[in-house]
Amino acid sequence: MGSFAMKPDISVVETTAPVPIPSSELPASSSPSITLVPATLLERYQCWHINSHSWRGPLSTEQYISREAFLEHQLLTREGKITYWILTDTFLSVGADGARPILAACETLRKEGYLGRNGNLRKLVTHGVGSVFCRKEYRGRGYASRMMTELGKSLETWQQEKGTKASFSVLWSDIGRSFYAAHGWKAMSNTRISLPVVSGQNSLQTQNKPDCSGVRDLNAQDLRDRICPKAIAILETNLRLRSEHRPNIPHIAIRPDYDHMEWQHARENFQAKTLFDRDPNIKGAEDLATGCALIWCRVWGEVPQNNKLHILHTVIPTDVKGDAISSIAALLLRAQMEAKTWDMHGGVELWSPTPDVVNAAQSLAGIERVQTTIRDKESVCSLRWIGGEGEEVEWVADERYCWC
Ligand SMILES: CC(C)(COP(=O)(O)OP(=O)(O)OC[C@H]1O[C@@H](n2cnc3c(N)ncnc32)[C@H](O)[C@@H]1OP(=O)(O)O)[C@@H](O)C(=O)NCCC(=O)NCCS
C-alpha cells in the first residue's frame, strides 16, 4: 500500500469522439428502438472523449481518459462492479469501428448498503449513478430523460440476487434538484459546512484552542486495517439505534468501507501526481484520546477556489470517551492545516455535519458564525427509494465518501 502505480497495466484504446449524427436523422426520445445497454470497451472510451470537457477539470483530455481508465481498476469498481451504460437506438447503423451510436451515457457503481428498520439491519446491494451525459449536439431532445427512466427500471434488478429487488439507488446532481426528481431521485437534506485553511494553531483567532496532543495522521494502511472496520461497526450500531428510536421509518446507509475511500483516493493520487508530482499520503487524522477520526481527500477543481479538502467521513465512537466536541475541533484544525499545506484555496468542506461537528467548527471559528449551508445546485445528494411512494426515509451518514 502507498506504492501508487500511476500507469497500471491498462491497454489504452485508440479512438476519438464519434462524428455526431445529423439532427434530421436523430430518433425521437420515445422511439421503441431506443435502449439502454452496457457499453463495450470502445464505446466507453468514446464516451470519455465526448464528455472530457465537462469533467476533466485541470487535466488534459488524454490525462482525463487515463484517470477514468485507472479508476476502473480499484476495489470499488473492478470485476464488473462499475457499469458504463449507453443509450442507443437499434435502428441506427453501427459505426465502421463497430461502436453503436451514443445518444446519452452514464455509469453506475455497485455499493454495499444497509436498510435498518425497527432496530434490525439488512445488508444489501445498491448503486450510485454518475457521469450522466448527453453530447451538446443532441441536447434538449429528451435523451437524458429517457435514459434516466430506463436506468431507474434497470437498477431495480441490476446485479441483485436472482428474485430480489433493489431497495434504493443514489446520485449526486450538479444540475439542481428538479431534473432527477422528475425521474424518482429525490434530493435529501444536503447540508454542508466550510472552514478556511489555517497555517497553525497559533493563527487561530479563538480563545478555545483545542488540545491537539492526541492527534495523529492516518495513511491508507491505517484506513484499511483499523479506521474503516471501526467506522463500519459504528455505523451499524448507529443504524440499529436510530431505526429503533424512529420505528417504521426506513434508515438507509452506504457502508463506509475501505473500497470507497480507496476509490476517492485513487482520483486524488492521480491528480496530485499528474498535476504536481506529489503523493498525498496523509489521508486523515485520529485523536488517540477519544477514538474520533476524520478521513479526507483533496479535490482539485477547474479554478483554484474550487480546490478543497473534503472530509469523506467523520468517525465518532458511539460510546466516545471524553470531550467529543473538543476532539473533533482538534481534528478539523488538523484538516485546515493540511488544506493549507496543499494550497487548497476552497478550504475544508464537510457534508451532513452532526450537531457535535457544527459545535466543534464553531469553537474554532470564535466569534464568527459557522454557516451550515444547503447544497442545492451542485453535489445534490438524491435518493431513489423503491419502497413505498412518498415514504419518509432517513439516510444516515450521507457524507462525501458515498459520492461518485
Ligand atoms: C444534463 C444533461 C445530461 C441533459 O441532457 P438532455 O438530453 O439535454 O436532457 P433532456 O433533453 O432529457 O432533458 C432536458 C431537461 O434537463 C434540464 N437541464 C439540462 N441541463 C441542465 C442544467 N445544467 N441545469 C438544470 N437543468 C438542466 C433542462 O432544463 C430540461 O428540463 P425540462 O425537461 O424540465 O425542460 C446534459 O445537458 C449534459 O450532458 N450536461 C453536461 C453534463 C452534466 O452536467 N451532467 C449532469 C451531471 S449531474
TrEMBL record:
Database matches in SUPFAM superfamilies: Acyl-CoA N-acyltransferases (Nat)
InterPro entries the UniProt entry points to: Acyl_CoA_acyltransferase, GNAT_LYC1-like, LAT
Residue ranges of the TM segments: none
Cleaved signal peptide residues: none
Residue ranges of domain LYC1 C-terminal in the record: 206-404
Coiled coil (residue ranges): none
Cross-referenced Gene3D superfamilies: 3.40.630.30
One Pfam family from the record: GNAT_LYC1-like
PANTHER family reported in the protein's UniProt record: LYSINE ACETYLTRANSFERASE, N-ACETYLTRANSFERASE DOMAIN-CONTAINING PROTEIN
Protein name (record): LYC1 C-terminal domain-containing protein
Lineage: Eukaryota, Fungi, Dikarya, Ascomycota, Pezizomycotina
